[in-house]
Amino acid sequence: MERVPILKIGDILLVSIQLDMSDQTAVALQEDLAERIVVTGCHGVIIDITALDIVDSFVGRMLSTIASISKVLDAETVVVGMRPAVAITLVELGLSLNGIRTALNVERGMELIAAARADELEYQLDDDPDAETATP
Amino acid sequence: MTAGVDLGPQAQAIRSDEDVVRVRQLVRGVAVAVKLSLVDQTKVVTAASELARNTLVYGGGGSVEVTTVDNGRRRGVRIVFADSGPGIPDLDLAFTDGYTTGSGMGLGLSGARRLVDEFEIETSAETGTRITVTKWSR
Hints:
The structure holds two protein chains of two kinds. Chain A is an alpha/beta fold. Chain A has a single domain (6-127), classed as 2-Layer Sandwich (Transcription Regulator spoIIAA), CATH 3.30.750.24. Chain A contains four helices and five strands. Chain A has helices at residues 23-40, 57-72, 84-93, 106-127, and strands spanning 6-9, 12-16, 44-48, 76-80, 101-103. A five-stranded mixed sheet of chain A has the order 1-2-3-4-5, sandwiched between helices. In chain A, 33% of the residues are buried. Chain B is an alpha+beta fold. Chain B has a single domain (10-136), classed as Histidine kinase-like ATPase, C-terminal domain (Heat Shock Protein 90). Chain B has helices at 17-33, 38-57, 91-94, 108-115; strands at 10-14, 62-70, 75-83, 118-124, 128-136. Chain B has a five-stranded antiparallel sheet, with helices on one face. In chain B, a hairpin with a 3-residue loop joins strand 4 (118-124) and strand 5 (128-136). Chain B is globular. The two termini of chain B are 14 Å apart. The interface between A and B is medium-sized, with 23 and 27 residues.
């Protein structure tokens, strides 16, 4: 079985799916990614699907599950690079990709993760009265 | 109308995950050969992926045959999925969005039907399930 490589770039894990995945490969990616989030302590996951010709209900469900798992492990997931024909087909298929954030490309995906992270940190600081003086 | 490349029927067994990937590639090849638009190629390959997975998971494996069709005005791709599994006892229920007896999302059958132009299904406990779908070029 082939495996999808997971790259670490700073605080982000980048997964660029370059092959037509079998269902087993998709399930393995889900598990590998959960493992890597915990080991690296990364707070963001970007899944680049630019090379995917189709997203069927199985892969769609895998993307939703990855987003949920990473949320529980304190990481944000953004799916980037969806082709227009794939988006049209997904909607007609009836798949809503619940809970998945999307961005047009990797760069915007990184911005989205940084912004979500900043919001969260601010929220945590607001909760802590001692931290107020430390905030610039 | 000019005669395109005529591909004879192409068959593929569906016995494993990897075969589902092969079905997608086979259907894409034929869809490109009959000059479906990119969106229509994507739709028919997605539908084939859902139905091939159903053949594997619910039908216990089976086979697929992909052919080109021509009605004089338009060309298209026709795909027949056949298994000798237990059949589908309640078709209305099986076509309901979100209904599943397995671990999927319950979008396979109903979603696949929306993505193609023609959809026929014959199913029984004795003979298994046979699904024929067709997608025409615009």
